[in-house]
Write a structure and sequence with these properties.
single chain; alpha/beta; TIM Barrel; ten-stranded mixed beta sheet; two-stranded antiparallel ribbon; 11 helices; 12 strands; globular; binds ligand PBG
Length: about 325
């Protein structure tokens, strides 16, 4: 056989395969989402996300310890307040649940990088991500409230804020208020390319944040669109975003590649709740090899161009890297 090029030559031994590997993954890029809930002695499993929990402040350290030990470097906090109201005032309360969690984590786990999700949907009685005018989510009046929320997180000690509301102009509003308040060096990771997705279902269960009427299609993106992702990323960068996030992950890897190639900033991917729940359910049913499928999925997101991966499987992925299953 007269074959000069034989791709199989580079697949002959594990050491060689490892040597010529194109995508290298590291624990340094992993972020773990954590749900903190007002109350005491809470560690409740989220029914649609087996293995994921809501913690109160007095049980949170137990989880953060595990995150730190796994080698995951950052956490992303979501708050679940006791009381909700029409304007989501719990979001920016000085003694709000996320603010308290950040204070505690900063004191007890100074080496963990603390990121907060900035949004109103967990705090509003109607479950929408912004303020309502009638049945409409009003863009411009929401901006001030989001900026206040971001500032209160940073004042409590957050290292970075991550707005997920999808209002137009929120990066600029947050950047301006942070700068005016002396936080010019606090980065913003923008959920810039956030699609309106059924993959968020289990999260809304976890955070009690499903909209009471309608849906989020007037502010989150239509999943038929690709060009619009570029527009969203461009706008957010012009407004001062430091990191661009694409969300969800697995069904959107074409978009990840596009954003990673196009913009000279770090690209984050959020592998969302529904992705976790699907893999977990299949694993629990014995249909898939969980470690193998989670590993392969994680690598696919880095291969698509992600620098950062936010995942409910972050601790496990860190373990797979330690074991040398991926790397
Ligand atoms: C808040 C927010 C959501 C998620 C992250 N931030 C829910 C939503 O937009 O409905 C989803 C995360 C996940 O599904 O894991 N706006």
């Amino acid at each position: 056989m007269d074959l000069l090029s034989r791709p199989r030559r580079l697949r002959g031994k594990q050491a060689l395969r490892d040597m010529v590997r194109e995508t290298r993954v590291s624990k340094n890029g992993l972020i773990y989402p954590v749900f903190v809930k007002e109350g005491n002695q809470i560690k409740e499993e989220i029914p649609s996300m087996p293995g994921q929990y809501r913690y109160s402040l007095d049980t949170l350290a137990y989880e953060l310890e595990k995150v730190q030990k796994s080698g995951v470097r950052g956490v992303l906090f979501f708050g679940i307040p006791k009381e909700k109201d029409a304007c989501g005032s719990g979001a920016w309360a000085d003694d709000g649940i996320v603010q308290k969690a950040v204070e505690l984590a900063k004191k007890e786990f100074p080496d963990l990088y603390l990121i907060t999700d900035v949004c109103l949907c967990e705090y509003t009685s109607h479950g929408h991500c912004g303020l309502l005018h009638g049945q409409n989510v009003d863009n411009d009046s929401t901006l001030e409230v989001l900026a206040k929320t971001a500032l209160s997180h940073v004042q409590a000690g957050a290292d970075m804020v991550a707005p997920s509301d999808m209002m137009d102009g929120r990066i600029l509003a947050i950047r301006n208020l942070l700068d005016k308040s002396g936080y010019v060096n606090t980065p913003i990771m923008s959920y810039a390319v956030k699609y309106s997705s059924a993959f968020y279902g289990p999260f809304r269960d976890a955070a009690g944040s499903a909209p009471a009427f309608g849906d989020r299609k007037t502010y989150q993106m239509d999943f038929h669109n690709r060009r619009e992702a570029i527009k969203e990323a461009e706008l957010d960068l012009a407004e001062g975003a430091d990191i661009i996030m694409v969300k969800p992950g697995l069904a959107y890897l074409d978009i990840v590649r596009e954003i990673a190639d196009r913009f000279p900033v770090p690209c984050a991917v959020y592998s969302v709740s529904g992705e976790y729940s699907m893999m977990k359910a299949a694993a629990m049913a014995g249909y898939i090899d969980e470690a193998a499928v989670v590993s392969e999925s994680a690598v696919s997101m880095f291969r698509a161009g992600a620098d950062i991966l936010i995942s409910y499987y972050a601790k496990e992925i860190a373990g797979y890297i330690t074991e040398g299953r991926i790397g």
